[in-house]
Design goal:
The structure is a single chain. The protein is an alpha+beta fold and 268 residues long. The protein has 9 helices and 12 strands. Strands 1-2-3-4-5-12-6-11-10-9-8-7 form a 12-stranded mixed beta sheet, sandwiched between helices. A hairpin with a 4-residue loop joins strand 3 and strand 4. Helix 1 crosses helix 3 and helix 6 crosses helix 7. The two termini are 30 Å apart.
Length: 268
């Protein structure tokens, strides 16, 4: 049975038990729910069969997130296609993403390719280190931070983001950012997708000319300490093929959790 929700709050209310049982795996669902007040801003859909379920959510221009049982992929694919709920990218466990896109392409055509292979890492016990250079961001720092975030997306994701839009996001969420200066801002990181039980660390970026000096370690350690002090689990997404940064996070206290992939879907 397919259920399409009218708002993120409706989805949250009806799936509170699932969100509570799988907080890490559903963190994007909860984050999306806060921004989807109606179906003009994205969608939530769920297929149920007894105790089995498969959930999907897409917000704005971000990937559609999937979580649940593979054997329900065909029904979800048919439901999304019938209701014209469109997507361009899919974020999920690899087998689930492959199964869903295979089913969807049998209906709608098109093709898919691997865009990013990622792992979720989490930390509940921090290995302390020096964070003396870390500063909390202020509103005056927003333009410089936005510039660094644009550089981060271009380098790590090969995506060109509009700096004015990034600046608006930074200004709205300036309290989430920390930074390190060497005159100019040379390293940034932020908290994101914070819930009652979890908080992500994202946009960890150091300018090329100062890499290898431990600046990312300081930023991630500082944020992780704050998250753990609030009684929450810190987590982050890492590139599966970047052993340097992943080793850094392990040395701070992060351990591997659920692997994820981002797939790109397109019509031929």
């Amino acid at each position: 049975m397919l259920r399409i929700y009218e708002s993120g709050q409706q989805f949250m209310d009806e799936n509170a038990e699932i969100l509570h049982t799988y907080p890490l795996e559903t963190s994007f669902f909860e984050g999306n729910a806060k921004g989807i007040s109606d179906r003009s801003k994205g969608f939530f859909a769920k297929v149920s069969d007894g105790d089995s379920f498969l959930m999907a959510s897409r917000a704005a221009d971000f990937p559609m997130v999937l979580f649940g049982e593979e054997h329900l992929c065909k029904e979800l694919a048919e439901g999304l296609y019938k209701n014209k709920l469109e997507f361009g990218r899919v974020l999920a466990a690899e087998k689930l993403a492959e199964s869903f896109l295979t089913c969807y392409e049998e209906i709608a055509g098109g093709k898919h390719r691997l865009r990013h292979a990622m792992d979720i890492m989490r930390c509940s016990q921090l290995h302390e280190s020096d964070t003396r250079d870390v500063l909390a961001a202020t509103p005056d720092d927003a333009p410089e931070i936005a510039k660094r975030i644009v550089e981060f997306y271009l380098e790590s994701l090969q995506e060109q983001w509009d700096e004015e839009e990034v600046l608006k996001d930074v200004q709205r969420n300036i309290e989430q950012f920390v930074l390190i200066r060497r005159g100019d801002i040379v390293a940034v990181a932020r908290k994101a997708r914070e819930t009652e039980r979890l908080c992500a660390i994202s946009s960890v970026y150091t300018c090329r000319e100062v890499r290898g000096q431990g600046l990312a370690r300081q930023l991630v350690t500082w944020l992780t300490r704050e998250i753990l002090r609030d009684g929450k689990i810190a987590y982050l997404y890492v590139d599966r093929h970047n052993p340097i940064s992943n080793h850094l996070y392990q040395s701070i206290g992060f351990v591997y959790d659920a692997p994820q992939v981002e797939m790109q879907y397109s019509i031929e």
